[in-house]
Amino acid sequence: FTVEAEAGGPEPTLWASRAIERWSLDLGLGLTPLVHIFSPQVIVLAGGISGAIERFRDSVEDCLRKKCIPACLGEALPLRPAELGDRAGAVGAAALWIQHPPLSPS
User: Fold this and answer.
1) In Å, how far are 21, 47, 61, 87 from 98, measured between CA atoms?
2) To 10 degrees, what angle do helices 53-67 and 11-38 make?
């Protein structure tokens, strides 16, 4: 989607841009209750979406500013990509396996 939305041209990219805007709104609405519960100091996005954060960051942040209780949102913005990007899940799984290796069959 992001490649098509940023490629330019009138018609082929219109649907991609609209899909990203809708997805950004859904992400912001999904993060809102988490912000209310945890009052995070930072919001870090990992996985495949972290590489495209510049494409949707403003829309998600606008949604959070409109929907979140200001005291809960605090200084959590701007959204930040994970340092490990789309490798965060694999690195986390490897770390978990190292800390808690599977039991060997007896």
Assistant:
1) 39, 21, 36, 17
2) 50
What's the pTM value of the predicted model, to 2 decimals?
0.74
How many Å apart are CA 51 and CA 61, to the nearest integer? 17
Among candidate residues 87, 27, 24, the one with its CA nearest the CA of residue 58:
24
Angle at 89 between CA 85 and CA 93, to 5 degrees: 145
Query: Is the CB of residue 52 less than 8 Å from the CB of residue 73?
Result: no
| 40-99 confidence digits (pLDDT tens) | 999 999 888 888 888 899 999 999 999 999 999 988 899 999 888 888 888 988 999 999
Q: Which amino acid is at 101?
A: P
Q: Which three-class secondary structure state does DSSP give residue 77?
A: coil
Check if the beta carbon of residue 29 is closer than 8 Å to that of residue 17. Answer: no
Residue 35 is classified by DSSP as H
